[in-house]
Inverse folding.
């Protein structure tokens, strides 16, 4: 072919590959070589999706699968509304727009608030995909560091305040947190409300792991603080709650009707969210609460097991996370990316190895998280036990090979 | 509430409401007043979606609806590949990324090619949603005018060339065209290929109405010109082909592997396209070709009827469109938006009225299209006959009331 002179947008060129999916090719190679790869890298639970989802879809008999309202179908909107009501969150149907997953909800929220060069405040380590979702709008992620020594609690008012500039548009909070598993307590919620109100910032509350809290302190909603309702955007998704990551239905909820009106324009640009997914989602919300209770119990048991296993491995550092199904694990290595690749390429125990998720890309500050990985414990207990054994042996061997002993 | 000082992004503030959905509230009001509103405004066909779609989904028995590959599931990718092959289009599986509708495919293509201020060349009148999809990336639509007198054929090389600047990244072509119904002939295809190659531009070929061509000239693919394959992006969707607008599955296809690698990053940012829709889509492509043949015949009959009816109305101007299911209709009014609102609010024939789509927003050049509407004829013939009768009577009454006679 001839030499072309086109170039792609700086925006897209500047996006890094997903750290969660970064080692996919290494994993494929390991599998081709006959190895079994236990995934500790991805938040894909093995919990069964409520049967209500597929059975509601199977009952659809529409002859034409037509466009729906850009806002979403009433059944899905009302399902989210009723769900929020059970948590005391005062969202009415007109405050809710159905989105194609939580990722679209986040993209729409950020695009509505940020022009090129505007800033979003987040707490690092943070869900690395925020980098991409912000870059799509030209927005910049500004990170406030939280540290494992303090179990990733928020720093003081002054430390956060220092990062706020006249370009800051919002504080993006993940509660419960991915990747740290931390859960905001009342003083932290109030700190964010105070900062948002003092600086006219929006709070984007990404709460897709809302149910999965194992600590006594429980979930606290920003909606308990009526003074911040005009500044609050809640981003939600059914992916984790109902173990349906392939469902791709979420929502944006806000009492700020001007904000909702702007987001609706973005909803109109993609015409509508998928119809059958919305029907299935509405039905799924009717599942008995025991479904969620059992999922919570299962994740708590796995957390307890996984933390105990990991803390028993020599040289690792981790604290007990309060929620979600992730935690950050410090490893006795210099470069967790190199170790992750080595485990897939060079190591196995009886034909089995593990796939880790290096934590470096969860940090915006260079040099942070180099020896850390994110552990996702949403897989069965026997696999967690095997994985911990493989990690322990792998670390010993790696440290020997690399002269780290 | 207190006075807030936040402001929303200029990007989103700059987006206009969809012209196709602009009069939705007028229509709702008319319906509440007991009127029946016949929609001539929206491309929502009444043709039945292939049964294969829902039956394949009903057969899914996965216990967990998990994330799929960000590229799309193999079944869906291969279905598009095989379909393209039947048309002689040389796309392999690795050249195809499944998207959540054609709108996401367009957004991803534009975002990958354009930074803030970069330009996309289109031919006006054009699908108004391009304005929004471009604005999301900060890209600017630059319009080359086509005129009804020439049945919206492309202008000369020189006229198009004049609009190309050093910020132009792509020519976005809708073939068959929405809203004009025009279909590119060989000389027009070659003109675009020549301009793209001379100026290192991408061709974004939005061909979601590909099957719906009623003229002898037939469909010509840009892939017949191997010299432009590196510059070519085909955007596709199942919405119109299979009358499944609520399905939201489309794709981006390109032989430019660097381009595909960049778009894949955007695919990863939203994790995956919805799973069950992909399963249904793969099955739907297996529908017997008689399904498409019957749809084409039905649309051709409706076109012939609708054009005849409209041409018989005093003062209207339209030519026979070659494809899609739209055409531009000139009306003997000064302001088609005012007329559209008046028809919904003030007029009916035996309790029935019509909803039109004013064409002004399909033009970028101010002052163009003010007396035009886009007619969508994808509804049943008896409704078209009724609609034409209502339009004729409405025009007479409106011209009398407004003193236009």
């Amino acid at each position: 072919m001839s030499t072309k002179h086109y170039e792609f947008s700086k925006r897209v060129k500047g996006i890094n590959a997903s750290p969660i999916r970064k080692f996919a090719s290494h994993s494929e190679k390991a599998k081709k070589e006959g190895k079994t790869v236990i995934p500790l890298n991805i938040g894909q639970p093995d919990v069964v999706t409520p049967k209500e989802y597929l059975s509601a879809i199977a009952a659809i008999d529409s002859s034409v699968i037509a466009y729906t309202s850009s806002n979403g179908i009433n059944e899905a909107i009302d399902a989210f509304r009723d769900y929020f009501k059970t948590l005391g969150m005062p969202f009415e149907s007109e405050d809710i727009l159905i989105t194609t997953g939580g990722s679209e909800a986040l993209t729409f929220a950020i695009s509505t608030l940020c022009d090129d060069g505007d800033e979003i405040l987040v707490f690092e380590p943070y869900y690395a995909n925020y980098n991409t979702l912000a870059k799509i709008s030209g927005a910049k992620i500004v990170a406030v560091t939280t540290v494992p020594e303090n179990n990733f609690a928020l720093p003081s008012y002054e430390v956060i305040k220092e990062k706020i500039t006249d370009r800051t548009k919002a504080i993006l909070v993940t509660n419960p947190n991915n990747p740290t598993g931390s859960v905001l307590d009342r003083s932290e919620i109030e700190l964010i409300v105070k900062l948002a109100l003092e600086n006219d910032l929006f709070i984007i509350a990404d709460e897709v792991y809302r149910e999965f809290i194992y600590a006594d302190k429980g979930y606290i909603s920003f909606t308990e603080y009526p003074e911040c309702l005009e500044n609050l955007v809640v981003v939600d998704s059914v992916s984790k709650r109902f173990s349906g990551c392939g469902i791709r239905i979420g929502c944006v909820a806000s009492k700020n009707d001007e904000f909702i009106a702007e987001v609706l324009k973005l909803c109109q640009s993609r015409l509508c969210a998928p119809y059958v997914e919305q029907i299935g989602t509405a039905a799924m919300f009717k599942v008995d609460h025991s479904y969620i209770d059992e999922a919570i119990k299962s994740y708590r048991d796995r957390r307890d097991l996984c933390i105990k296993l990991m803390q028993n491995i020599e040289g690792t550092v981790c604290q007990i996370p309060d929620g979600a199904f992730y935690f950050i694990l410090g490893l006795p290595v210099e470069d967790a990316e190199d170790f992750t690749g080595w485990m897939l390429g060079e190591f196995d125990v009886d034909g089995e190895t593990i796939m880790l998720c290096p934590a470096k890309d969860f940090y915006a500050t260079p040099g942070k998280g180099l020896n850390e990985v994110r552990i996702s414990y949403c897989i069965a207990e026997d696999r967690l036990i095997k994985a911990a054994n493989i990690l322990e042996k792998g670390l010993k061997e790696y440290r020997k090979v690399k002269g780290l002993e």
Remarks:
- The first strand of chain A starts at residue 36 and ends at 39.
- Chain A has a mean pLDDT of 95.
